[in-house]
Amino acid sequence: MSSSPQAPTRAVTADADTRPSLTVLSGFWPAATFAVARALLAADESLLLVRHDLTGIRDGLVRRVVRTGAGIIEDEQVELKHGCVSCTLREDVLPTLARLTRTNPGQDLVLMLPEVVEPEAVAAACAHCLVDGAPITELLRIDSYVTVLDAEHLLDGLASTEDLTTLGIQAAEDDHRALADVVVRQIEYADTLVLWGQSREGEFDTGRMAILLQRMAPWATHLRVNGDLVDAGTLSRQLRHTHRHRPETPGVLARGLQGYTLGAHEPEPDCGVVSAVFRARRPFHPQRLHDVLEVVNAEVIRSRGHLWLASQPDTVVAWEFAGGGLAMGSLGHWLVSLPEDRWDHVEDQRRLAAALDWDPYYGDRHQHLVFIGLDIDPVDLHRTLAGCLLTDAELADGEETWRTYHDPFAGCFPLNTEELADTDTEGARPA
Length: 431
Prior knowledge:
The protein is 30% helix and 26% strand. It has 431 residues and is of the alpha/beta class.
């Protein structure tokens, strides 16, 4: 008698994971972020909310508050060896999460970040910092990185040219980040975005900001919440146990190199919002590109991506603009410039992306830039950037001649010849 196939004795699914889940909430406007946190607590009184106040961080002091839906269970001032965000994450945030997980088995957690902390910093700490000799992910599962945006203030934040030091909210003495840089990085790292409340200008402007967020982070799940009419149960189901976090996803500057979506090409205005993707194989002429830096970003809220210069053909150059400032830096070597025996040390995903798009002449070198803004002209933008590419005659001169071009960017993007190619930025700097 024949037997029917047997079902697997152990089916490993996401639901079989018994670790408590952690939802990370970030946002530059704490009132909106805390409103989302309160809604989650209202939907589940057993949920543990962890918050850190960094007001005194430059004096080495941090206030930690832990609460449930029933009230505050911890409120302590913590003294750190060094007053910085990374020290806070390493010395108190991760140990607190580990301790709460051990002392409250089965209870999920929400970590609400201070307004100047970027979620990618938390992800890096979770990946690389050990707690009692083990990674935090052995104790809990990072379910989602959620960023909350206040509809009343979002556009002002994205357009701001102020830095954290001027505002007096820097996280360390050497913290020179711009406000807009913090906001865009909170947006772009998140797997879930919540647009909270309404714009002062009405429903059209609120809808326009929702579209802007979709263009800035097309990979994220997008939610709109009317702050006056919040269904805590519905919001909790939308934000918790979603399994949206993918730890293997690279940071935004390396996304395009590894074959991930860098931006959506939506040249037709939607409520005035335009997202234009520029791609090309030819290298940029360094002087012509330098001459149009201000022009191409004149009406832009956010631009990002990577490029290559004819004068520096070995280097992947990072490009990011926000808050009126453009930063460019080195993302390491193009694979075509590396001996094949060094490719084994490059991420598998990047090698695969390069192989799928390999050109017999250029190798993996290419331009990939995304520009997002209100009422920008994508045709004029494309025409301007295309005019910076090498002409047929310049291409025919060859790489040795390209390297002799006058280069306003000379020395700005050094390559570490002692290390293998890396897709993490080596320090973007103002252009």
